[in-house]
Amino acid sequence: MSNAENQTVVIVDQHLESTLDSVDASEERVKNLAAEIGFVEDDAYQLGYAVREAMVNAVVHGNGYSANKLVHFVLSRCGASIDILIEDEGQGFVPERQADPLAEENLLNQSGRGIMIIRAFVDEFSIERAATGGTRVFLRKSLPPGT
Length: 147
Hints:
Blueprint: E1 8-17, H1 20-36, H2 41-62, E2 70-78, E3 81-87, H3 114-121, E4 124-129, E5 135-142
Antiparallel strand pairs: 1-2, 2-3, 3-5, 4-5
């Protein structure tokens, strides 16, 4: 693969409102890019769903739907991979403090499974504190070899 094929190309770099419309738009952008570069339908759907979960976490849990807080959304392509960076302006999130969503006492909870779903649907996933004090998540999904 040449260096040109490994260059990162930023497709979207936006600060979005803390709304479910922003969640929907981000999911659609990711699914469209995935389909465009050759992901099979199931993989494109799963990546879109992972982004949806991460965006809901940023909008709802991070920013609390605040009209005064934005979500930074960056969608990039690097060769056969799609990278997504999502950063909220909330109080930050400590993954170690999250209850086990598979524990019997948590099975009927309305929330708490998003991170588990994201991890299942992407190849790489990380969570860290953003410079703003909020939470920054990174997701990467690559085309399977030979695709």
